[in-house]
């Protein structure tokens, strides 16, 4: 019977395994205090990723501004931008609304891929919007998000949806959502327009695959929605270029984490 050294291929594999075992033993003997700080942070991040834990970014733990102050801040910033454009002779891109919109194809669950986040929205993950039919032919909307990983607190708000241009000639992509607070004593109506839409098809049973929704000429709210939790990078870059051409401040549009919750 031949020895292991007489088989070059087997001997080579054993030599590599032996060297690998020696390196593993050497790593086990390294003390934690001798590891550089950068390597410590990297190891901690890898450990969190392996265990499925997610930590919110520091900015999301900041004390949020009241919604009214947040809206005033956005309005002031837009006013200053308009003044600068006027002085420099610049023009804001035209806001184009999709036509031939069919509300039936818009129903169902949408995942928020990216958006312009208000202070009270920072830190939310797994954000979704569900449009469904209610009693009497009404359309309901339910927006929800999680503050932490799946076991965290869910924040949700429900409202009634209306399609004001559904029966017009152009059938523009316009919708208004009415939210009720304090058991219906206070109602807030938010008008939105759809400026980009994908999917559909020749049959009404085909749903739209992605949508970009904003609050009109104010351009202080923008949502990139998809039927899946992610959009291809190429498609996302195309949407960002289109939003920039329409006059949006794309630096304010940030991606929405879709990995907090694993049980919903």
What can you tell me about this protein's structure?
- Residues 105-258 form the Lipocalin/cytosolic fatty-acid binding domain.
- This is Lipocalin/cytosolic fatty-acid binding domain-containing protein.
- It comes from Vitrella brassicaformis (strain CCMP3155).
- With 264 residues, the protein is an alpha+beta fold.
- It has two domains: 4-51; 58-255, Calycin beta-barrel core domain (Lipocalin, Beta Barrel), CATH 2.40.128.20.
- It is built from four helices and nine strands, in the order αααββββββββαβ.
- An eight-stranded antiparallel barrel has the order 1-2-3-4-5-6-7-8.
- The longest helix has 22 residues, at 67-88.
Write the layout of secondary structure elements.
Blueprint: H1 8-28, H2 37-51, H3 67-88, E1 108-116, E2 125-133, E3 139-146, E4 154-162, E5 174-181, E6 186-199, E7 208-214, E8 222-226, H4 233-245, E9 253-255
Antiparallel strand pairs: 1-2, 1-8, 1-9, 2-3, 3-4, 4-5, 5-6, 6-7, 7-8
